Amino acid sequence: MSYGDPNNPYGPPPQQPPAAPGYGYPQQAPGVPPQQGYGYPQQPAYPGYPGGNQMVPQSMPGLLVTARVFLFIISAVQILAGLAWLYVAAIANDVSDAADDLSSSSDDPFSAIGEGGDIAAGVLVLIALIALGLAALSITLGVKFSKGGQGIRITTVVYGALGTIVGIIGLFVGLDSGLATAVIFPLLWVVFGGIITAAPVVASGTAWFNRPRY
User: Fold this and answer.
1) H, E, C per residue of the chain
2) What is the pLDDT of residues 117-166, one digit of tens each?
3) What pLDDT score does 88 carry?
4) 209 with 63: CB under 8 angstroms?
5) Chain mean position to CA 106
6) HEC profile for 51-85?
7) Is 0.90 surpassed by the pTM of this model?
8) Among 207, 199, 110, 109, which Cα is nearest to 149's?
9) Residues of the chain with confidence (pLDDT) below 50
10) What CA–CA distance (Å, rounded) separates 20 from 23?
């Protein structure tokens, strides 16, 4: 009795050939874990953007738009204030010059008025330059909202926080004076400063300043 005979009913069953892989799918080598997807590698999260899988904002968030408008309004107020201080400084300088012309000695009242006018004019010019410089900063921050990055974001937060502190101080002074007119302007300043400070800090503002730029 030969077990090698294929017609022997008592012999071992014949070996079946391995099944052919399905058509159109790459053959997987033994011991290699199956790959997810066919022909398309997994895309990594975008580097530097929080979350990686979040939607990139296509337009400026509404709170940032509001903060931008407030920055432009504040810059207009600062420009008007700077020009007003320059005008008052010019008046003080004219008074000082007139007092110097009327002064006959260093002991008369006109001499003191002249010296005081010169000091007042210098101080007022300094205040005017500070106001105009802050106006330029407000305009720059508002313009840079569209393309600015982390530097503009941090500067805006610090600028808004300082403005809010100044507004709170003015609000306390106005409340202590008991005048309603002395409360309105500081209150508006606190509201504007609070929104300017909060807009770049909230999630939508952070995503806007962290968005990729090509």
Assistant:
1) CCCCCCCCCCCCCCCCCCCCCCCCCCCCCCCCCCCCCCCCCCCCCCCCCCCCCCCCCCCCCHHHHHHHHHHHHHHHHHHHHHHHHHHHHHHHHHHHHHHHHHCCCCCCHHHHHHHHHHHHHHHHHHHHHHHHHHHHHHHHHHHHCCCCCHHHHHHHHHHHHHHHHHHHHHHHHHHHHCCCHHHHHHHHHHHHHHHHHHCCCCHHHHHHHHCCCC
2) 788 889 999 999 999 999 999 999 999 998 888 899 999 999 999 999 99
3) 94
4) no
5) 55
6) CCCCCCCCCCCHHHHHHHHHHHHHHHHHHHHHHHH
7) no
8) 207
9) 23, 25, 37-40, 43-53
10) 9
CA distance 79 to 139: 11
- Cα–Cα dist 174/187, whole Å: 9
> Tokens in use for 77?
């107020």
Residue 180 phi/psi, 5° resolution?
-65, -35
- What is the C-alpha separation between 67 and 71, in angstroms, rounded? 6
Structure-token match 């929104």, residue found:
195
Distance between CA atoms of 156 and 140, rounded to whole angstroms? 10
Q: Which residues contact 135 (CB under 8 A, 6 or more apart)?
A: 74, 75, 76, 78, 79, 82
The whole-angstrom separation of Cα 25 and Cα 38 is: 8
Q: Which residues touch 102 (CB under 8 Å, ≥6 apart)?
A: 110
The residues, ordered by sequence, that sit 6+ positions from 166 with a Cβ below 8 Å of its Cβ are: 189, 193
**CB neighbourhood size of 74 (10 A):** 25
